Amino acid sequence: MQDWKPNISFETARQRANFLAKARDFFVKRDILEVETPILANHAVTDIHLHSFQVHDSQQRTIGFLQTSPEFFMKRLLAAGFGSMYQLSTVFRAEEKGSQHLREFKLLEWYRLGFDLEAMMAETVQFAAAILGARPIELLSYQQVFEQSIGINPHLATREQLQKITQQHIDVNLDPSDDESMLLDLLFSHCIQTTLGHKKFTVVYHFPKAQAALAKLKIDTQGHTVAERFELFIDGVEIANGYHELTEFDEQRRRFETDNQQRQQRGLPKIAIDHAFLAALEHGLPDCSGVALGWDRLLMIALEEKVIDRVVCFSSSELKN
Across residues 182-186, what is the average pLDDT? Predict the structure, then answer.
């Protein structure tokens, strides 16, 4: 039996450690505090695209959820006055499989007080360059990438138009409950994403308002309401997802409730709202921007690997389905 052996060589493990040292050095030089928050917590996230692992005791009682991101805990620290911070956290996401996905992986998340979206985009590219070396930088709005690739304005397209275009471009059976946001996401992931970031850092910003998640909204120069959100793509891979963070307590609660309504429509379980996180927002989250970066995906690029299993010692792919 050879399955006991690690996925990577000692040399790859040493390279991984060296990249980790570079990452910490990046934040030390900027006087950004490293923090550590729980992996097991009382609440899962309401986001319809994320699925958490439940943890049970010996009597099959749910005692908590493995976290998909340290975001809520870190924002509680921000509300308590901790200032700019970062964390390299082990996180877990159920139902994630593929050459770029692991059920258990390393997520780098950081928050910067007083940063707007543009400043956070710039620092995220600076971090990528610190690990990979300098590359040309390309900034594109979500509207620009859709107009260039598919010829539509994503902020104006109707559900019927998007259904027709999706069926033209993708061999997929559409769910009747798919709304405009889901259809746009399908088109983006299948027709656009793989074209982005080749031999450069491509940042896509100003996502549709329905995809705001925990980001602020704004009116763009064309009068569209957009999310102050961006994603970084390198060699066709989504590496990071950043927000100018939502700080309004009432709006965040409304978004949680909307998530649960969408969950019920899709036959997904309703998720209890994290009231400790909402209480932190009500107390006062300072103006800030944040980003979550897939550390193992970034190492795939750095080590010129095509499969994410090749950059971790042991893979969650070993788990039974």
Answer: 94
Please indicate, yes or no, whether residues 232 and 255 belong to a single structural domain of this protein. Answer: no
**pTM for the predicted model, two decimal places:** 0.96
| Residues 210, 216, 220, 225, CA torsion sign | positive
Do both 21 and 76 map to the same domain?
yes
Has residue 317 got a pLDDT over 80?
A: no
Do both 206 and 295 map to the same domain? no
Sequence letter at residue 136: P
According to DSSP, the β-strands at 85-92 and 33-34 are parallel
As separate numbers, helices (DSSP H) first and strands (DSSP E) second, the chain gives 9, 12
- Which amino acid is residue 42, in one-letter code? N
**Same structural domain for residues 146 and 239?**
yes
Give the total number of structural domains in the chain.
2
Name 220's Cβ contacts closer than 8 Å, sequence gap at least 6. 141, 206, 226
Residue where a domain terminates, one of 243, 261, 276: 243
The whole-angstrom separation of Cα 164 and Cα 279 is 43
| Token code pair at residue 232 | 């970084």
Domain of residue 6 covers 1-114+248-284+286-321
How much is the pLDDT for 321? 62
Percent pLDDT > 90 in the chain is: 91
Q: Are residues 5 and 68 in the same domain?
A: yes
Q: How many residues does the chain have?
A: 321
β-strands 85-92, 104-113 pairing: antiparallel
- Chain-wide mean pLDDT for the chain? 95
